[in-house]
Every structure is written in C-alpha cells, then in structure tokens.
Design brief:
Length: 936
C-alpha cells in the first residue's frame, strides 16, 4: 500500500471533515463494518447495507464537484471545527517540519520574486499530478497548480510546505500562504506590534489588485499559527543538535556580559544585577465578561511550548497569599524598613471590579542590567501581588545562586516580604540584595534611600535598575493586539516579541551601552577630580573617609527618630484630651437655664413657641453633658496609663512641654502635605518633558500644574503658620525655596529638625550634602569602570568562542544532516550578523582616554556540553523527537483582527474548486482489505 493510500484510509477512518467536505457517520464507520468488527442493526425489511454503500459511493464519486453533493446541516460549533483542525495539523507536524527543513535548505522550492510564482508550479488548467489552490503571497494572489506527487510526501500538506507554501487546512486545502509572506509578517509585527493580520492581508490584496475578503485574514491566521509552530519545533531541534536543550540553558546564558564568566577575573560583589517590575498594559479581556464564546485556545496558553521565559501559573501560585507570601496591597511594618508600610502598588478594594473582566491583567518580568529578558509571568486576575516577584527571585536563585541584586519599585517593602516568605532563608543564605531603582528611589524616605538606593550601595556602579521601564515602553505597543486575543495568541505574541527584541535589539545595543557607560563613568571621575577637592577645602575636610562617617551618622540619626516615642505619643494625646475636656466644660457652662413662667408671658404663645425652645435647650445641655462625661472618661483612662496622680493645668511644665510636642506634630503634618504636593509637581514636570507625551496630555498636565501651584501656596501658608507656632520657631519657607526641593531628603531634614537643631550637624548643610553626593557618585563610577572591564573581557571572549563553536558544529552537521546544518547556520547568523559591529565598538572603547581593561580574549569557565567554550559535538535528534502533541489552537481567530463567524468562511469555500482526486468504492474496499491483512 502506497503512502498516499495509507493516508487516504486514515483520513477516512478518522472522519476528517477537511477531507470529505460533507462528513457522514456512515463514512466514519465503514471500515469497521467492512472488516466485520462492527455489527449493523438490520431491520426485517433489509436494505440498510445497500443504502449505506450507495450513499458512500455517491459521496466519493462526487468529490471534486460539491454542487452535486447534498450538503447536510453542520451542527458542530466553531470550537469543534478549530479543535479538529488543530489535532489534524498536530498529527502531521513531524512531516511538516521535515518538509520545512528541506524547503528552507533548498532554494529551488521558493517563490520567484521576478515572476511572482512558485518555480514548481504551472498555469495550465490541467491539474493532473498537482493540487490546484489559491496562493496568497507577497508577489501573488491567484489560483495556481502545485505538484506534490513526490514519494517523500505522505500528505498534501507536507508536499505544499516543500513547495514553500503553508496550507490553511490539513487534508484538503483550498488556500495556501507563501512562507515568504508569513515570515515578512512575523518580522514586521515584531518590529511594529501595531500591525494586525487584517491590515497586512488587505495590503497584499491591494498590491495584487484583488478584492479583500474577510475570510482571507482568518485563513492567514491559520497558516501563521502552523508556520510559527514549525519554527518552534525547528528551534527545539537546533538546540538539541547543539546540546543546548538542558533545563534553564537559555536563562543561564541569556546575557554574555552577565553570565559568560572567565577564569582569573576580579570578583564582583554582585554576580548579576537585574530589575523586575509589573506592567498592566498587556491585559486580556475575559470571554465570559463580554458574553462571548470560549475559544478553542482556552487553557492552552498555560501549556505553551517553545519559550522557557514564561513561569507557569502553578509555579507562581505556590508563592501566593496564605502559603509563603503576602499581598503587596497590605501595609506592613518593620523596624528595619521605614517605608515598609508606606508604599502600595494598587488598592485591591478599588480595583477588584476591574480585574474581574480580565483573565490576565498584565505581565511581570525580570531583565538583566543590559536589557536581556530573564523571566516573565502573567499577572492573573489580580494586581501586582507579592507572589510574582517572589517567584521571579526564587527562579533566579535556582539558576544563578549567590550574589544577586534585584531592583524593584518598592524594593524596601519587598525585602521585608521576602524575609518573611519561604524563599527568605535561601535568599539570606545566598546573599540576595533587594534594592530600589534610581528614579523611584527619590520618592522614598531619606532613611530608605540610605539603605536601598543604588547610589549608596557599594558594588552597584552606575546602574539605575530602571530597565523594566524602558522595556515596557516597547511592549506597550502590543496592548491593542492582545486585548481581545485568546490566551494562546496573547502569549504567542508576547513571547515572540520579547525573544525578537532580545536577539535583534538588546544584543545589537550591548556594546553601545557599554561604550556609553564607560564614557559616563570617565566623565564623572574627571568631574569629581575637579570639583570634589574644592568642596572638601571649603568644608575643611582632608580625608574622604569623613563622608562615609557622615552617612553612617545620618543613618543613625534618622533611624532613632523614625518613630515617635510611645510615651510622647500618649502625653500628646493626654494634652489634646485635656484641651477637649476644657472646651466641653466651657460649652456646658455656657448653656445657662432660662426661666419662663405663664405670669411673665402675656399671651398663649408660650405653649406653642417657648416650650419648643426649652426642649431644644434641654437637648443641647444633655448632649453637652454627655460630651463632657465622655471626654472626662478618656482623660481618666490616659491618667491611669501615664501614672498621673494630679491632673495637668496650663500653668504646669508638663502641660507646656506637651503643647510644644503637639505644635511640632501639626508642623510635621503640614510638612507631609507640602511634601506630597511637591512630589506630584516633580513627577508632572518630568512627564511634561517625556518623549511620546501627546499634545492633549501636555495641556492637561499644564492645567494640573497651575492648580498644583495654588495648592502648594496654600499648603505653604499653613506650614509657615505651624512653624511660627512651634517653640522655638522653625524656619519658614518661601515658594521659590520649596519648588527647588527636588529630593525628599530635604523634607526629611526639616521633619526631624522638630526634635533638635541639626543645622550644626556637619552633614546637614547644603554644601556638605553636595560634597557627599559628588563623593559617592565618583565611587560608583569607579565601580562601574571595574565592572565594565570585566564585561568587555567576557564579550570579547564570547564572540571568539561562540563563532568557533558554531562553525565547528555546522561543519559536523553538513556531513550528517545538511538541512539541519542550514538551520543551525540561520541560528548562528542571528547574533553573528552583529559581530563586526561589536568588534568596532570594542575597539573604540579601547581607544578611550582612561581605558584600563583589555580587549584580548580570555578563557571561559563554561565548558559544559553546549557552552560556547565547550567541545563541539553535535547530536542528530531522533525522528520521534519532533513533538506530535497538539500544543497550539490553530485559527481560534480571536486575536481581534477578524471576528466574523466561520460560517462566512465555509460559505466562501464554495468559490474554490477541488483538486480533482477521486476514489472508487472498489479502491476503498481494496485499501481496507490491505490494512486488515496487515493488522492480522
């Protein structure tokens, strides 16, 4: 039995509707009936077998002429059709991948850019030996005849792939899309995420002068899913051939500058510095929330195969609330963290309704300091909870071990949560450091900055840990494309875009970033040499170690005054309640009784008017007595807590001292309000100058700034009033001084000045603080130079080792498996195309005045199989290594490009002609007999 006959029999036995246009239950079970394994229920009148054979014969006879067939009602849902198509393509995927490998390595099968036609196609109407179908491509949109009758093709689909086109149906396709068009769209969408399938297909239709029809976008989506799945399987084969398919190999080798360690290199305090953050732009609307159907892709996004960046929901959920973590929405308190209870990403009670309409509310990701993505997780039906950064940190600790530093917007609070979680002991044992990024750090309290801000942490260099913000500015372009997509297509788009960005954007700019950082560090060091000695002379300082002593002294001072003493708090509360008691006593005494008798009133209006007034006064006096008794009870309770035997009076010293404390507290409250307004002012000013801000948004921000200015002036007046009420009086501020406070550290100094005069402290003066900033900037710049020298040495070595390893592997595969060797060549060229660019910039770095590193290759410590410095030894993956499990829901068509129903597509199928292949009943019976004999 030939492969074509075997395939025909399998399609008949499985009842695929894509082979028989009108599927019948009789056709599905005919083989079981013919071989006697299934019994037919025959009536007394008989004739059932004759009718069955006659109907089957007519269906087979009319293949190629649908007009003669009797179209039955199709009760299957769109989900059912998509699932059956998915399963059929998945069973053929091994053959499709083999055909793709041969087509990719053999240029004779590709479409000709000059004629716009496949070199193995013909324009004649005679379809003998070929398949007639509509071909949609960059240079063509017409009906063609493609020859697929080779012995190596076990199905029509694999034969078409061998010709450079991807069919839109697995068994009897009417339409195919050229792989050149699919690749163009894949690359174009990764470069411009706003490009939709519908817009692309319309563009091709316009170029070819044909009418655009909605079903074409649906068919293109089917072909694109097949094409992307073939690429994923081929990529897996390439990694297996290169022995790079071990768990977390990509993660452990994501960035050459961070992970490609060398022998005898200096030890850096932080082995890997990364930033992590959440982004809520890439939401996906829940189907149930909008009353739509559940697509065939439901629950398949979680089973996505082909990208190990994504953390599974099961892995993330084990760090959820109630197990080993807590919510970032809940306020926490920690003596070692002054900001622990201050920052909240989102308020769950306010946003809980919004999360209900989204299946995924965004993504949470971690990237290295050079921009390479490390891990990604979906934020599922919630805000930015603690389980997401906990899962990311746990994964990175497993992969890299000790010496990690992670920047997070609320890294101070996350450090507290991490220590309390199940990951805490491992994080402490591996010396994990939680930090706050530079931009977000200046919105934290001064004490928090001294402990978590990168500028004051040794070993950080000039890294700002704000890489996630730059990454999210790119991924935001995907928002419109994934908002109404299926779970699978959303994850497919996100994973594809991030992978493309890593290989074509981040890797290309790797040496550019290093060059810019080297220049910046050298400039800071040079400026420090010119400025710092002058500042030290003005302050009378001869030793730079004084700056670290000042920093430690400031840390101790702020830590000691981060909270009010409990006794002072009770004393202030007691003083305030005494004031309230005195006010309530005075109010009660002011409510004097009014005597009114009938003899004093000459009219009968007393009954109607004065009685009501008397009742109102009685009610007021009763309320005043109740308030007095309540205040008296509170005062008595506080006297018991404080051990006061004699009630304070205004003449007592304790009364006056507590009054000053209350005035200072009011001063601090006014300062807090003024601080919050200034922070909003700073952020809005930065937004005004941010690229990408539209005209309308700029106008809106400008109006907000005007209103904010008025609010600042009002808050400033209250602050100055409270400052004058303090004893001794505190310094008052002008509007010009306040708007120049660009850092919250200035407010913290004012806040803590209420307890003692710190103006005499050496580190509190503006000149001393400027000198401290210059000193620590120079320290970080010197550390940056040290780290950049290590990274440059790693990159130079990686470029040499990777090129040598890949060329050796390609040479081996050209002998054993040429098509796979070609794919490995493409894999190598993804990064090799930028080698000359990197070498040129590295040479430019070595020519910088002040360069202290080396551009000579070293010796890597990574010599395991598959590593760039390892021994080249390729492995030919076995034939069964190609996955045959359906892992992608083809053409669920809920990506937002086209929401028309498949019925429209099915109706338009009538415009196509069949391939003309027919089988007689005798041939069907013969094939069935051959199969039965083979089974016996």
């Amino acid at each position: 039995m030939t492969p074509q006959e075997r395939h025909t029999l399998e399609a008949l036995h499985e009842g695929q509707d894509d082979f028989f246009h009108a599927e019948t239950d009789d056709a599905v079970e005919i083989t079981s009936i013919l071989d006697g394994s299934k019994v037919i229920d025959l009536s007394h009148g008989g004739g059932e077998l004759r009718d069955l054979v006659r109907d089957l014969f007519m269906d087979v006879k009319n293949i190629g002429n649908e007009g003669l067939q009797k179209r039955r009602v199709d009760y299957r849902t769109r989900r059912d059709r998509a699932r059956r198509r998915t399963d059929a393509f998945a069973r053929e995927m091994p053959e499709l991948v083999r055909a793709y490998l041969e087509w990719s390595a053999n240029s004779t099968g590709k479409f000709c850019s000059e004629t716009g036609r496949c070199r193995n196609s013909q324009t004649s109407t005679n379809s003998n030996g070929g398949v007639q179908l509509h071909v949609l491509g960059i240079f063509c949109a017409e009906k063609r005849i493609l020859h697929v009758g080779t012995d190596s093709d076990s199905s029509v689909s694999s034969g078409l792939v061998r010709q450079g086109v991807v069919p839109c149906a697995p068994l009897r396709p009417h339409t195919a899309v050229t792989m050149d068009a699919l690749e163009l769209y894949r690359v174009a969408r990764n470069r411009s995420p706003h490009l939709s399938i519908q817009a692309f297909v319309k563009t091709i239709s316009d170029l070819q002068g044909v009418q655009y029809r909605p079903y074409l976008a649906r068919l293109f989506s089917i072909a694109l899913d097949v094409y992307l799945q073939m690429r994923l399987v081929v990529n897996d084969l390439v990694l297996k051939a290169l022995r790079r398919d071990t768990p977390d190999w990509r993660l452990k080798n994501a960035c050459p500058a961070c992970t490609y360690t060398l022998e005898d290199e200096p030890n850096l305090r932080f082995k890997l510095m990364f930033a992590m953050d959440g982004n809520d732009s890439l939401k996906r609307i829940s189907r149930a929330a909008i009353g739509s159907y559940e697509s065939a892709a439901k629950d398949v996004g979680e089973q996505f195969i082909g990208d190990d960046r994504y953390l599974s929901r099961t892995f993330v959920d084990q760090f959820g609330v109630g197990r080993s973590g807590e919510s970032l929405m809940e306020a926490t308190a920690d003596d070692d963290n002054p900001c622990a209870g201050r920052w909240k990403n989102m308020k769950e009670d306010v946003t809980s309704r919004m999360w209900g309409i989204f299946d995924e509310a965004g993504i949470f990701m971690a990237i290295c300091r050079h921009g390479f993505s490390l891990v990604v997780a979906d934020i599922v039906r919630s805000g930015e909870q603690a389980k997401y950064p906990l899962a990311a940190v746990s994964k990175l600790l497993d992969a890299f071990g000790d010496g990690l530093a992670g920047g997070y917007d609320i890294g101070c609070k996350f450090g507290t949560i991490l220590n309390r979680s199940a990951v805490g002991p491992r994080a402490r044992a591996l010396n994990y450091t939680s930090l706050v990024p530079a931009f977000h750090g200046y919105a934290h309290r001064r004490l928090c900055q001294l402990r978590f801000l990168a500028r004051y942490v040794d070993g950080m260099g000039l890294e700002d840990l704000e890489g996630c913000e730059r990454m999210f500015s790119k991924t935001n372009g995907l928002a419109s494309a994934v908002r109404y997509a299926s779970a699978f297509h959303r994850r497919q788009a996100i994973a594809g875009y991030i992978a493309h960005n890593d290989e074509h954007e981040v890797y290309q700019n790797l040496t550019t970033m290093i060059l810019n950082n080297y220049r910046q560090a050298l400039r800071i060091i040079q400026e420090g040499k010119n400025t710092l000695p002058r500042l030290m002379d003005d302050l009378g300082i001869t030793d730079v170690s004084v700056f670290r002593m000042w920093l430690l002294e400031e840390n101790e001072y702020l830590a000691a005054r981060s909270r009010e003493p409990e006794e002072e708090t009770l004393q202030m509360e007691y003083w305030q309640k005494l004031v309230n008691l005195d006010a309530s006593r005075k109010h009660l005494s002011d409510l004097a009784w009014t005597v009114a008798t009938p003899s004093s009133t000459g009219t009968s209006s007393f009954v109607q008017r004065d009685i009501a007034a008397t009742m109102r006064k009685e009610t007021m006096r009763r309320h005043a007595m109740e308030n007095f008794e309540k205040d008296l009870k509170i005062v008595q309770d506080l006297e018991v807590k404080l051990g006061i035997t004699k009630r304070w009076v205004p003449e007592d010293e304790e009364w006056q001292t507590a009054g000053c404390l209350v005035a200072n507290r009011k001063y601090q409250r006014c300062l807090d309000q003024l601080e919050s307004l200034i922070v909003a002012w700073i952020f809005e000013l930065s937004k005004m100058n941010q690229g990408g801000t539209g005209y309308k948004l700029r106008k809106h921000i400008a109006k907000a700034l005007k209103a904010r200015s008025a609010a600042i002036r009002t808050a400033l007046d209250r602050f100055n009033t409270a400052a004058r009420a303090c004893s001794p009086r505190h310094r008052q501020l002008t509007f010009e001084e306040v708007v120049e406070y660009m850092f919250l550290a200035d407010f913290d100094l004012l806040r803590n000045a209420t307890r003692e005069d710190i103006s005499q402290r050496p580190w509190a003066s503006p000149a001393a603080r400027a000198a401290m900033d210059h000193y620590f900037k120079v320290c970080r710049a010197e550390e940056e130079i040290e780290r950049l020298n290590v990274e440059i040495h790693r990159i130079v070595t990686y470029l040499r080792d990777e090129d040598h390893y890949m060329k050796a592997c390609i040479a081996q595969l050209r002998v054993t498996h040429p098509p796979l060797a070609y794919q490995v060549q493409l894999y190598h060229n993804t990064r090799a195309r930028f080698t000359d660019h990197h070498l040129r910039l590295l040479a430019e770095i070595s020519g910088l005045h002040g360069f202290t590193g080396t551009t000579l290759p070293g010796k890597s410590t990574k010599t395991n199989p598959g590593d760039s410095a390892g021994e080249p030894a390729t492995v030919i993956p076995p034939a069964f290594s190609i996955a045959t499990v359906p892992t992608f829901p083809l053409a669920a068509s809920d990506s937002g490009d086209d929401n028309s129903d498949l019925d429209e597509f099915d109706a338009d199928e009538d415009e196509y002609e069949d391939d003309g292949s027919t089988l007689t009943l005798q041939e069907i019976i013969r094939i069935s007999s051959d199969r039965s004999g083979a089974q016996e």
